[in-house]
Amino acid sequence: MNEASRLSRTQEYSLAVAAAVVTANAYYIHPIIGDVATHFGVSEARIGIVPALNQLALAIGILLLLPLGDRYSNKRLTIIFVAGQTASLAVMTLAASFVGFTVGSTLLGFFTIAPYLLPAYASKRVAPEKLGQVTALLAAGVILGILVARAGAGWIAEHYGWRLVYWIATGLMLAVTLALPRLMEGGERERNGTRYWPLVFSVFALAREHREVLLSGTIQALNFAQFIALWLALALYLTAPPMNYGTDVVGYLAAIAAVSILSTPRLGRWADAVGARKARFLLAIIQLAGLALFWPLGGTLWGLVIPLVIVNLVGPGVDVTGRMTFLSLQPDLRTRLTTVYIVLMFIGGGIGSIGSTAVYDLFGWGGICALLTASSALLTGLAWWATRFGR
């Protein structure tokens, strides 16, 4: 690799910021979902369609668009997809109807491919001894984007209205769209000889051949569904009687997820020592205990903090250990196996989105607590069964 083509430290941090901005877009809705529902005059059950279609469109986008990274320049694709995100956000920002807002959100999900292309781009432009460091930096950018989106959206919506959240998001995305052509220097040779559809369909063949990735993906689908369901339901619960808090309080609680930045690298090192499957099972047990505490402790704001800390400490670890089960396989399979895993994860996110708002509309907070506990019990059972693969 030519020294001139390597990323400078400034470029590395700038790409991490870009990763934060492009990832944040899917998470602004979490603390403000009640405000958006009220504005458009839709029920709590119906508003769940917005994040649900966003997550399902993201799954479809990952399946259909991510394989293009094996054929076309990562730089070129990233710029195109980020521009698509920016246009989609503009539709959401200007939408006068619920249908228009939902269409914009769905398109936004479909184009949210950049967080998965940026690491591939960066990996080709850093020295081998810095690969882990730069990959971790981009991952930290993603986590930071989620945290700032949820905490910031709640505060802004409470004081200035939810629409300003999307005006700011659109402005940030426009800035990133304009900056990327200069940030992502150097072109890549495009592999036009690689056929696109056979590459996409090969994902299904690999999934059949490596059945454990389907199991790991299903476990992560449940894990991600719980994450989405919890935060959407919390936003509805905390801003309604008898709690009657503002969206800023929802954002403050969302900041608790910062503990995962500290815990996840340590859990990864621990999983290296004890084994990914065993570690995932143990983390699943702890997560089940944390989710079960939401019912007895959820009557007060401070009571909610305890299970939230537990869940945010171990939840990302379930994802990390799930990825470890197949990322040790041969390098030429990892991208496509990761595609299977991520598609299943976002299908779970879509189901969690629509399921949580529907359950909350019908059964309230108690129904959500029962749903989360049952889902976590199923996840724990699957994680125990998966330990058989490691024997």
Description of the structure:
With 391 residues, the protein is mainly α. The protein folds into two domains: 1-194, MFS general substrate transporter like domains (Growth Hormone, Chain: A, Up-down Bundle), CATH 1.20.1250; 195-391, MFS general substrate transporter like domains (Growth Hormone, Chain: A). 80% of the residues lie in helices and 0% in strands. The protein has 17 helices and no strands. It starts with 8 loop residues before the first helix and ends in a 5-residue tail after the last helix.
Quick structural overview:
This protein is mainly alpha-helical and 391 residues long. It contains 17 helices and no strands. The chain has two domains: 194 residues, MFS general substrate transporter like domains (Growth Hormone, Chain: A), CATH 1.20.1250.20; 197 residues, MFS general substrate transporter like domains (Growth Hormone, Chain: A), CATH 1.20.1250.
Which helices and strands, and how do they pair?
Layout: H1 9-24, H2 29-40, H3 44-47, H4 49-65, H5 74-94, H6 98-111, H7 114-123, H8 131-160, H9 162-183, H10 196-209, H11 211-238, H12 247-254, H13 259-274, H14 276-292, H15 294-297, H16 301-324, H17 331-386
Keywords: Membrane, Transmembrane, Transmembrane helix
Pfam families: MFS_1
Transmembrane segments: 12-33, 45-66, 78-99, 105-122, 134-152, 164-181, 213-237, 249-267, 279-295, 301-318, 339-359, 365-386
